[in-house]
Write a structure and sequence with these properties.
Length: about 100
């Protein structure tokens, strides 16, 4: 949800995270009564869970993807897991005050 947040442990566990997301998606995709949608996952412990299901529309936040430059990838795949490779600089003005004490 916070596309400006960097977590160093994600790269270290990337393959495991991707595997859990794909496994969860395969187990639920036939239960979703929609043809096109955007689904958000979180990995909690040993499994991935669905956070929310959104309509396939440009008003749905694409996070680290871009509707203009990544449209074909979003529509046709293949699956791609994206995360920040390094901390962003000068994000203090983009963060709610309640989170600022946690910034490095």
């Amino acid at each position: 949800y916070f596309d400006i947040c960097y977590f160093s442990s994600i790269e270290e566990h990337k393959d495991e995270i991707v595997s859990k997301i794909k496994l969860t998606f395969e187990s639920i995709k036939n239960l979703i009564p929609l043809t096109n949608y955007i689904i958000d996952f979180a990995v909690v412990g040993d499994r991935a869970i669905v956070i929310e299901l959104n309509p396939w529309t440009e008003t749905t936040d694409s996070s680290l993807f871009s509707w203009s430059t990544d449209r074909e990838k979003l529509q046709k795949g293949p699956f791609e897991f994206r995360h920040l490779q390094s901390p962003k600089k000068n994000v203090r003005h983009q963060v709610l005050n309640v989170w600022k004490p946690f910034l490095v």
